[in-house]
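User: I'll paste a sequence; please echo it back and then give the predicted structure.

Assistant: Echoing your sequence first, then the prediction.
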Amino acid sequence: MISKSTRVETKMGQNKSKLSKEELKKLESSTKFSKAEIKVWYRGFIQDCPDGELSLNEFADIYRGFFPDGNSHEFAKMIFSVFDVNGDGTIQFDEFLNALSITSKGTMEEKLEWAFR
């Protein structure tokens, strides 16, 4: 059984100010972002999420900022579950960037497939 501390240490970007060359290369091949774009997104993600992950509550708070007059929590939960590919209850940088890649640079087919997951 993997302990929580071991699992946390293996999350991409966990407690790091920089991506490793291997992580950067993996993200370049799995997303439609350039190396420079990935680095910019990573700096912003780590600035907002210094522990390298985003919880459902933090995610819901972000959505609430976009929809202050509505009940965005249920919608945020649905979107969160699509971002949280590994199902561990948090969004790591690689999950965030892959979802962002599809929603911002994906084909219409990729976007629809992602939306209906």
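The longest strand covers residues 53-55. Confidence is low (pLDDT under 50) at residues 1-10.
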